[in-house]
Amino acid sequence: MPKFDCFVVFAEMRTGSNFLEANLNAFDGLSCFGEAFNPHFIGYPNATDVLGIVQSERDRDPECLLTQIRMATPGGLGGFRYFHDHDPRILDTLLTDPKIAKIVLTRNPVDSYVSWKIARTTGQWKLTNVKKRKEAKARFDAREFEAHVNGLQAFQVKLLNALQTTAQTAFYVAYEDLQDVAVMNGLARWLGCNAQLDSLNTALKRQNPEPLSEKVENFDEMQKALSRQDSFNLTRTPNFEPRRGPVVPGYLACARTPLLYMPIRSGPETMVTDWMAALDGVNPGQLTGDFTQGSLRAWKRERPGHRSFTVIRHPLARAHEAFCSKILSTGKGSFKGIRQTLRRVHALPIPEGEPGADYDVNAHREAFTAWLRWVKANLSGQTAVRVDGHWATQAQSIQGMGDFTLPDMIIRETEAADYLPALAMQVGHPAPPDPESVPNKAPFGLAQIYDEEIEALAQDAYQRDYLMFGFDTWG
Prior knowledge:
This protein is elongated. The protein is α/β, with parallel strands linked by helices. Helix content is 41%, strand content 9%. Helix 15 packs parallel to helix 19 (452-461). The longest helix has 24 residues, at 142-165. It has 20 helices and 11 strands. The protein has a 5-stranded parallel β-sheet. A 4-stranded mixed β-sheet has the order 8-9-10-11, covered by helices on one side.
């Protein structure tokens, strides 16, 4: 029994939906019928019908067209593109029916806005012949852009909430993914299509490849206007990374000093717990843990003036720690099942067992760069493997903590020697010791393989952490 009987591409103008449709139609068994529910036309601007259903019939009963699309491709799958301003009467059916596959196409809102402005000026909405390309510049309007973003985000939130409440998942595709034949093949497989492409459709051309500074006539004004907005909020449409809840059982409290540590996995956990134990002259195993939300509330009530904290690590160093301890190693605590999947399905160049004599620094660099590329795909929701807390973004981990309680202080690993003792003194400790760094267990240190390419890969995968916490290049 096929998983889906049709598909919908949720997109917006100037997000690359024409290009996505062209490539979907290149697969045997997949047929996309344009903007089937556009209130101003049916399918395409100059079309008179879709599958024999004319616009007046569709407007009287939109369900009749949906039924026709479900039956359109015997042995295959039919679908269409749907924008936030298309016929709202059909939207609830699209969102709640699990037999309708949901593809969500997104693009940076600034890029889509500028592209839309240029297309409105030139009247050119598609480009198949570069020689016929029309040129123009966009004029940025702050209020118009704000309305543009608000509309995009409201619709994305509606999609997300509907998927959550109906226990469905969507296939998310970013504008940048459209040039990746592997992603397109992955999408086809997700839809249940066995056909695969060797290359992408090249009939449609990118219309405005120049940087924004060359496409916006009042670029300086646009920069100033955007600087007054929450830049991270603009790029959160959508956040592919799954939400994380508070991992309360993993929180640790000192034996006597009223300090609570809320760890982020693959951070400097050993350094912090050793320091916490030294505060009260106990062993790390004597720290208080295994909290429930109820017991943690009780701990807080019994200790007026308590403080809680977490320690964040540079995203690149943390990714290297996660890779070495959870993926490269086969020892206790490693993720052996995920390790085998990464070797078998994703072709990560890591040895079958523990690294041996033939695993040199060049092999380590090759394996780690492949891991960083995979992490980006994983955090973007493009792999079947779970997003584990050891490589989830620190921003998402802290956001999850906020579902129960936020840390009083977020300390950077590089500043722990100053801030951890100061924090202990704030809760009455007379002479807190200095924390001592604990070397990571790895075949090769990050410094031995670090270069600009590795830094760029880390920034690409962990853009959110670099932005939210102001991390600079590693080292």
